[in-house]
Amino acid sequence: MTQLELAKEGTISPQMESVAQGEGVEAEFVRQGVANGTIVIPANIKHTNLTPCGIGQGLRTKVNANIGTSSDYGNIDTELEKLKVALECGADTVMDLSTGGDISAIRRAIIASSSLPIGTVPIYQAGIKAVGRHGAIVKMTVDDLFSTIEEHARDGVDFITVHCGVTQSAIAQLKQQKRVADVVSRGGAFLIGWMLYNERENPLFEQYDRLLDLAKEFDVTLSLGDGMRPGSLADATDRPQVEELVTLGELVERAQQAEVQVMVEGPGHLPLNQIEANVQLEKTICKGAPFYVLGPLVTDVAAGYDHITGAIGGAIAAAVGTDFLCYVTPAEHLGLPDSEDVRQGVIASRIAAHAGDIVKGVKGAEEWDRKMSLARKKLDWEEQAKLSLDPERSRQVHSKHAPSGSACSMCGEFCAMALMEEYLGVLAEKC
Ligand code: SF4
CB of 325 within 8 A of CB of 61? Predict the structure, then answer.
């Protein structure tokens, strides 16, 4: 039975129990959230070494790290190293987006080494296989696509991005819209090329029930992809994007009726003042299904620093109700991320997620900051490091210029904290 089936019949599964314990909430709260579709627990029955993670309303905002090879770079070793870094830095899930080398072997190695939920985008591999077998992505057969999805499900993938909302009607909107950046979703581009070449409807939309049957068999969570997401601020919240979202709303309902867990992916490039509207649109149209945003990136011009651009957008998105942030690394728009990019991307997104959680009132979020402030007041440097998102970096920076006293090298003997302690005795009074 899927987590959704169990939740609907009133059963609290071990996975729901585990999520509740990790979040410090009641197991019944998690069960209700799964039952009404506002929480998902991506947990493929074949992923045996999984520590379950809940994504959705009332829970901590989660962070995903994308890893994976390209045709130019990467192999099993590089990707397992990135997985290790993502785990160490506190990512909640990992997506293997490999498009180079032995894609199946890389995916299996990642799943075997990961206690975190693993996501994939099966159409990447289906398209690449079609190039090998038939000479072009557009020659992919519908069975090629579904057999790849089944292979990923059998391997234990916990959630899959499927661009089911890229319909002929959305393509018509796209053509009329005359976007600046057309389509920036790789899966979306594969499908649009296939649909235009073959003059057919999207098989993931047309044969959605077949997809639901597969997802249900292994309890794979569907992450309904946003093939029409804006890749430029100029294209944000336009007709193709909204048309796709309306379709996704209908597909969310059908998935939930079929007892398949489902979440919805969102933009993309968005100006700051459109983030809240996008979150409200998704939450309304998709009846509270968990929202998984890619960034969002709040400017197009920060190449090399897009982990910062993404964290600014991610913080606002999380604060207004987004449940799941896909990280962005400094390599975004420029190249395949390496391990250091993964580290920077996960930390930046975790800052955004936590900043959002403080506003959302997530249990324990404010208390974490309060503890850090008290450690700062006490000039307790080891406690500050332990409470940091990146303890090692905290220690490194503090020890860079050795302080003469108990303060840090910023103000030295004129440390405000030390002066206040001397004249107000704040430390003795309140800590
Ligand atoms: S020296 Fe300055 S920066 Fe460092 S702890 Fe004291 S007040 Fe803070």
Answer: yes
What span, in angstroms and rounded, lies between the C-alpha atoms of 344 and 322? 21
Q: Is the CB of 407 under 6 A from ligand 1?
A: yes
Please give the Cα distance from 56 to 37 (Å, whole number): 9
The response to whether residue 63 sits with its C-beta less than 6 Å from ligand 1 reads no
Atom index in ligand 1 nearest the CA of residue 408 equals 4
Report the predicted TM-score, pTM, of the whole model to 2 decimal places.
Answer: 0.95
The three-class DSSP label of residue 95 is strand
Separation of alpha carbons 287 and 44, rounded Å: 24
pLDDT at 36 over 90: yes
Read off the tokens for 410: 């910023």
Residue 364 C-alpha to ligand 1 middle, in angstroms? 26
**Which pLDDT tens digit goes with each residue over 183-193?**
999 999 999 99
319 CA from centroid of ligand 1 (Å): 30
Whether the CB-CB separation of 299 and 309 falls below 8 Å is answered with: yes
- Which atom of ligand 1 lies at the shortest distance from residue 414's CA? 1
Cα 19 to chain centroid, rounded: 17
The DSSP result for 404-431, as a single string, is SSSS-TTTGGG-HHHHHHHHH-HHHHH-
416 lines ligand 1 (CB under 6 A): yes
Cα gap 413→409, rounded to integer Å: 9
- As a 3-state breakdown, the chain gives helix, strand, coil percent values, each rounded to 5, of 55, 10, 35
Taking only the tens place, the pLDDT of each residue in 378-392 is: 999 999 999 999 999
- Residue given tokens 């499900």 in the structure block: 153
